[in-house]
Each structure stands twice: as C-alpha cells, then as structure tokens.
Design goal:
Elements: H1 3-13, H2 21-29, H3 32-45, H4 50-75, H5 83-97, H6 101-114, E1 129-130, H7 131-136, H8 139-148, H9 151-165, H10 176-200, H11 202-226, H12 243-248, E2 253-255, H13 258-263, H14 270-275, H15 284-290, E3 299-301, E4 313-315, E5 320-322
Parallel strand pairs: 1-4, 2-3
Antiparallel strand pairs: 4-5
Length: 356
Amino acid sequence: MSSHNHAQLKKGVAPYEKSNIKTSIKQLLNTLPPFFILWAAAYLSLSVSYWLALPFILLAAGFVIRTFIIFHDCCHQSFFKSRKANEILGTITGILTLFPYQQWKHSHSIHHSTSSNLDKRGIGDMWLMTIDEYLEASWWKRTYYRIYRSPIVMFGIGPIAIFLIEYRFNTKGARRAEKINTWITNAGIIVLYGVLMWALGWQNFLLVQAPIFWISGVMGIWLFYVQHQFEDSYFENEEEWSYVKAAVEGSSYYKLPTVLQWLTGNIGFHHVHHLSPRVPNYHLEDAHTAVPPLQHATTVTLRTSFKALRFKLWDEQNKAFVSFKQIRHLIGKPGMPPNSNKPRGKSDSKLNGEVA
C-alpha cells in the first residue's frame, strides 16, 4: 500500500469525519430512553412471569451494546465536537456499560495504532499466539492459552473477568486523570446499583441486571472477536506492517441484518472505523458506500462468522488463522508450518489497483 493510496483513502472518508450535533442527540434519544424503558418493563414483568421478562431483557442487552457504541465514539472524540462533552457523556455511558472512560480510551487508542502488528500485541487486544510461538511454549503456557481461547471461557467467564473485575482497577502506570476517572466510574456504578437494589430489592435487581450484563458482555466480546479473527486476516511484523492494510484487511465488514446493524451502531463497518476512528458510527455505512476500495474488505455474515470459533493461532507462513487440530501433528517440532496447499503469502492485496 503506497502513501498515495493511503492519502486517497483518507481523502475519501474525510467528509464523514465530522459529527453532527442533531444526529448525535437523536441517537442519544433513541438509545438511552428505550434502554431505561426496557429495563423497567423487564422488572415489572417479574410479577407476572420471568418468561415474560426475558424478551425485554434480551432487547435491553441490545441497547447496552448501542449505548457502548456511543461511549466508544466519545472515546474517539467523534460523537461531539466538544472534547468536554465527549468526556462527560463518555463517563456517564461508561457507568451504564461498566467501562472506565479514560482507561479504556487509552488502551483502545493503542489497539488502533498497533492492530495486526505482531510485534506490538498485548494492549487493547485479545491474546493471540503464532504457530511458532505456540509450539515453542511450555506445556503449561499452551494449556493456559487453550483454556483462554476456549469459547466457554472467552464468552462465558470473559464478561465477568473483564467487565466486572479487570476494569474496576487502574492499570500500572496510569495517569492521574485516568485513575480519578476509574474511581468516579466505580463510585457511579456502586451508587446506581445500590439505589436500584434498595428500591427494587437485590433479588429483583439481579434477576434483571445479571442477564442483561452477561448477554451484552457476550455480544460485545463476540463483535470484537469476529471483526479481527477471520481466516485470511492481516498480521505482520513491524517492518512490514501497514496501518491501512491493518484497517482494511485486518478488520472485517460484519454484514448484519438491518435490526442488528442498528442495535450495534454500524460497528460491523469495522474496516472503515479502523481506517478513520474520527468517523461517527452513524456515518460509517455512508463512508463505506462512498469509497469503492473499502468495499473490498473481507465480508463476514452472521452465518459465516461462527467459523471464527475454530481460529486459534496465526500461521505466519500462509497468512491465515488455523485451528489447534491443524497443528496437532507438529507438537514437539517447533518452527514447522502445518501442511497446507495455500501459497506462502496472500495474493494481490485487496486494495492494489483500486485507488488511482
């Protein structure tokens, strides 16, 4: 990818990098009030039947994801023009979604600047090992990695471990503003949950909030997972790494049904978001449509996305994800790639020749 192509792509999405105050307010109004109403409906349904409450709980979890997308845009300073407004709304939506604004903003910015860079893994991303790293690791480390990559652990225990525990503490070396914001977020969560437990009863509160939290947590982890873990994704070492290729080839276009696309705030256009994080979520689809090269990003559908559950390790030689089963015969033979008919590298880049 030449710097010229990079400049052309950035020029193409530039018109969509501006937030619109009316659209942002409209999105707030069609996200937060419905969430509160659905939460209340779920609680009121408990007196009739928990089965009646479940549809409201499921919908409320979807609106938590939509609320998180607003929080996510605030972290990128793309929801409002005002930095202060983004910080205030980001902190409030962070309390609702259990995300500390400053802490997550910092780690997520690192994720964007290092995504798909094999030499800069470890902050704001999921643990990923290459085949060679896995084969050369100790038995204990391989076992731990297999447990970590297990769907039961990643999507079952993951929401609790990450959102309830990890995000409640400041990271090592955190700046003062980041520490204060984490404490404010934790205090806000304690007050909010405490008031609801006092007013509604802790059992009723947990019957509604616990499944909303877990379902939305699973959905959030899944969205992040599937948009970077697809078979012919893009990962390179520092010397070959390209920001544009990491965005357009290392992030998928998750093509979802209209309702799910709306609930997830267009985050399925992840390649556009990684190319230009300043594009608000409500402009992502327009940018995707307006810039033809972006339409060459790998498209993943709801049905095909479940294949990603098999992808565990990155094959540096064949530039693709593989399963544990595919490299089973290599245990004890470090450095040997799995048998594959795929060429050593990708064929022509998805963007080559697409931008004049």
